[in-house]
Amino acid sequence: MKVLSHKDSAYARFVKKLDRRAVPGAAGKQVEEIVAGIIADVQKRGNAAVFEYTQRFDGLKLTAKSMFVSEAEIEEAYASVDEDVKKAVAMSKRNIHAFAKRSMRKDWKAKNKEGVEVGERFTPYDRVGVYVPGGKAPLVSSALMTAAFGQAAGVPEILAATPAGADGKINPALLYALVESGATEIIKVGGAQGIAAMALGTKSVRPVEKIFGPGNTFVVEAKRQLVGAVSIDLLPGPSEVLIVADKSANARFIAADMLAQAEHAGDSVVGFATNSKALLTRVQKEIEKQAPKLSREKYIREVLKKGTFCLLTKTLEEAVEICNAFAPEHLSLVVEDEEKWLDEIRTAGAIYLGPLAAVAVGDFVAGPSHTLPTGGSGKSFSGLRADQFQRRASIVRMDQAALKKSLAAVETFARVEGLDAHGKSVSIRVKK
């Protein structure tokens, strides 16, 4: 772990680098070029390109038929999943739906001062795509935290893409969660080629209107490059957490949250900022005490070595300023005056308040989506929400009285902008 105090000479330089912003080119030129090549190839050759990349990257040979999960595979998954898993999925989905229903936008209408009736209408997308990463762990919760929001919003067609193993199988619990979350089609395709197939379509895959879900660097870059061909939710990359705490915090709990985040492996980021030297010392000791007892210690150690930082700040205000500059995906705020410091937080994707608010509860079952902005994109994006599965259309209706009251201003704009037909289109409707 990188451990720095505000008294260290390297501290200011390191903290300055934490002021992140997601910018074009952040993935690196090599990743950009690889992803651009994959997208162009899928656009040109469709299924053939998707199958080739899937065999190259995942060791799986697909056909137009086998790329889709069959009803038999779904039935097999339902039969093999344990009851405790089904209960956990049901709890998570129930809370997601309850949260989603409260956050969805509602139709409304009103009259402006001239009497024109204005309003908004919200309808679900017809067909969306959700991406669920594969890799080292079956992210069952990610299926719920994407597709179940679309299900709650009433999206009739949800295409899910997730990589299968070399044997062509998808983890049964993940498959079960996808179906329970409303997936109407599931393809065994991951990576940039999976995103391209959903966005552009192939002979076998009908294109979607919007893509949701987290992924690795290649997946995120594919989503970024395909904006315009398709809409996207946000740019959620490798997972991250920042813990801001004062002397009141429990070192055991903080260490456990840091290790839980490091368990994601890969390019995960784990941060801890405190104004208490004693707490920092205790947390370091707790990490060394707890890590050897965990099954994924190897992956955890890699993240602790290359993706973890601990900062001893001069004040708590400074720790909060670092948080706003860093824009973490998850923020754990463990301080004595929670509401006061909560008011100072502006850029975190999800905020966990108090010593008992374990990030893992939010990741799995609390209700809000764990698909959140990473890499500094929290300064521009918010996390996945149910209203992102809704289209918005404005509504305008008027009568003769409203037309007359609006006419003079419209004719003024038409004259200033040199668009006399605009003015005429209104005046022709007004009864003299």
Would you write up a description of this structure?
GO terms for molecular function: histidinol dehydrogenase activity; metal ion binding; NAD binding. Substrate binds at residues 239, 261, 264, 330, 363, 417, 422. The active site is at residues 329-330. It holds the Pfam family Histidinol_dh. Its cofactor is Zn(2+). By secondary structure, this protein is an alpha/beta fold. It folds into three domains: 2-22 and 238-366, Nitrogenase molybdenum iron protein domain (Rossmann fold, 3-Layer(aba) Sandwich); 29-109 and 124-232, 3-Layer(aba) Sandwich (Rossmann fold); 398-427, no CATH class. 45% of the residues lie in helices and 16% in strands. It is built from 17 helices and 14 strands. The protein has helices spanning 11-17, 29-45, 47-58, 71-80, 83-103, 140-153, 172-180, 191-200, 217-225, 251-262, 277-290, 297-306, 316-326, 338-342, 359-364, 400-417, 420-427; strands at 2-5, 108-111, 117-124, 127-131, 157-161, 185-187, 210-212, 231-232, 240-245, 269-274, 308-312, 330-334, 350-353, 390-397. The strands form three sheets. The chain has a six-stranded parallel sheet, with helices on both faces. The protein has a five-stranded parallel sheet with strand order 6-5-4-7-8, sandwiched between helices. Strand 12, helix 14 (338-342) and strand 13 (350-353) form a beta-alpha-beta unit. It is globular, with a radius of gyration of 25 Å. The model has no long low-confidence stretch (mean pLDDT 95).
